[in-house]
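Quick start: read one record
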Amino acid sequence: MNAPTILIVDDDSDMRLYLRGCLRGLGEAAGPVIDAADGVEAMRRVRADGVGLVISDVVLPRMDGLGLRQAIRGDPVHRHLPVLLISGESEAALPTDPDDAFLAKPFNARELLAAVRRLLNLDEDRPR
């Protein structure tokens, strides 16, 4: 099976570049990395591009990360798509379920990769 496409959603181009760089640490376990600058574009990409994981900032123009997560959960085709939310806000304020993870800013590459591996089941020995 091919490695999943990862969608990075952030309106800050420097943050998108940083996240791309961190994801190189997954090696061959990561598939293509694509990006979007807001939640509306991200939802379009989720529906069109066969995304396997969304990494999204919470504060975004047009549709924020929480709205994006809600739109994904409301879509019957994509409702189990893993979502990793990133924010400077407290984790207690953010909804979570087994398909979600949360990272508080500032975070490091090791924390990001651990969350991504968990959401994509990359640490398990079973076939994917």
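The CA atoms of residues 22 and 108 lie 9 Å apart.
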